[in-house]
Amino acid sequence: MSLNVIDRSKSSLIEDCILHPKYENNYNLSYDFADSGSYGVEIDLNEDGYDKEKSLLHTRFRKHYAAKFAPITSHIHVFQQTNRSILKKIDVWRELAKIENPLQTFNEVIEKSKYILDFTEGWDEDAGIPIEPVLFYTSSKIISDYIEAIYNEKGFIIKSPQINPVPDGSIDFEWRMESARMLINFRYEQKFIKAYYYGDLQNNHIPIKGSVPTDQVYEHLMKWMQFLK
Amino acid sequence: MGIAINGDFTDDCLLYRNSHIQFINDDLTAKAAAFSPKEGMSTDWDRYTSAEESLIRVGLTKKHGSENFKDPNMFKIFSLKIEDIQMIQGVSSIDFTPINNTPEILGSPNNPSHTDVWFTDVELRVKFAGIAINVPVNIELVNLAVAYSVK
């Protein structure tokens, strides 16, 4: 990911940042932003398993990056709360460069799947109906919205689905993993695009099933899709 | 509600489903799109056909709205076990519906094994994909039989 898109002339909006809910307050995190202050956030440098430091930086700087605002500092200092000794010095720009775009992989899937827009009638050597671009782009956009919503809430990126054309002209977004499977089928229904979905954790465990419009991210579906990580 | 079964099926009977390669993953598993229901999902009962015969009939069938025949090399065969289908709630019926036109219609071959499976649900497509097993087919034999029959 390039940093070239960041507009250094804009000041940072630290208010936009949210903290990861898994953090606890033991250490202070000091930073040099224009409106600097202390968050009082723990960074457990010795904990294994969950990468808190990475998640913290994600949480803090992702929105700056997305909004094309740049921090005006170059380093973050992590202090020991008791004696204020520096535990770690973090290069902000280096960390920003490592921040992932939650839609990068899915955007690649979309690009690779655009060939289905070239299908003509009978594309499956049967009565396959062509895939309408509006349906393709609308459904891809709403899946992107779900992926982003999950990333914003949980800080991780779910797996990207396959995009599969269906003979009736609808489109399947399909996840098949060892831990979970889900199918979201987008189709026209009375001139509106609707999503029909089914998912379970294999063997019918914690199933979810239903339909939603494509006007917004629906929380119940978004929550379940977090199994698709 | 149980599945209405019209035919002398036993639990270990297989239904062959031909699927265009568009609906097949690289690991030869089936995508859910392979089981798009439209007026019943056509399958072939293994009591009356082999997987090769099933694929040969594909090669003897004309493409939709065309005088050209389908290319059997563009299809794979999956099997669905009756016992597995019966475990899936929501399948309304399995109907043994052999097709036998006299004289046989060119481009629409008779099929003594034809069986329709009726369902209408996204959930069921996911579950069919989960139970479908790729059946290896001798494609050279199929191509030879198709070429001989079409001539």
Description:
- The complex is a heterodimer of chains A (229) and B (151).
- Chain A is α+β, with helices and mostly antiparallel strands and 229 residues long.
- Chain A has 2 domains: 14-98, no CATH class; 104-228, no CATH class.
- In chain A, 26% of the residues lie in helices and 21% in strands.
- A 5-stranded antiparallel β-sheet of chain A has the order 4-5-6-7-8.
- The longest helix of chain A is centred in the middle third of the chain and has 22 residues, at 133-154.
- Chain A is elongated, with a radius of gyration of 22 Å.
- The relative contact order of chain A is 0.11.
- By secondary structure, chain B is an alpha+beta fold.
- Chain B has one domain (4-150).
- Chain B has helices at residues 51-59, 82-86, 122-131, 139-150, and strands at residues 4-6, 14-20, 41-45, 75-81, 93-96, 114-118, 133-135.
- Chain B has a 7-stranded mixed β-sheet, sandwiched between helices.
- Chain A binds chain B through residues 121-128, 162, 164-168, 172, 174, 176, 181-185, 196-200, 207, 209, and chain B through 20, 22-23, 25, 29, 31-33, 36, 38, 63-66, 70-71, 74-75, 121-123, 125-126, 129-130.
Task: Note the quaternary state here.
Answer: heterodimer
What is the residue-mean pLDDT of chain A, rounded to a whole number?
73
- Return the domain count of chain B: 1
Instruction: Assign a percent range to the helix content of chain B.
Output: 10-25%
Give the class of chain A from helix and strand content and strand pairing: alpha+beta
Number of domains of chain A: 2
Basic shape of chain B:
globular
Termini distance of chain A?
A: 22 Å
- The ordered H/E elements of chain B are EEEHEHEEHEH
Radius of gyration of chain B: 15 Å
**Gap between N and C termini of chain B:** 48 Å
Radius of gyration of chain A: 22 Å
SS-derived structural category of chain B: alpha+beta
Question: How many E strands of chain B?
Answer: 7
**Helix percentage of chain A:** 25-40%
> How are the strands of the largest sheet of chain A arranged?
4-5-6-7-8
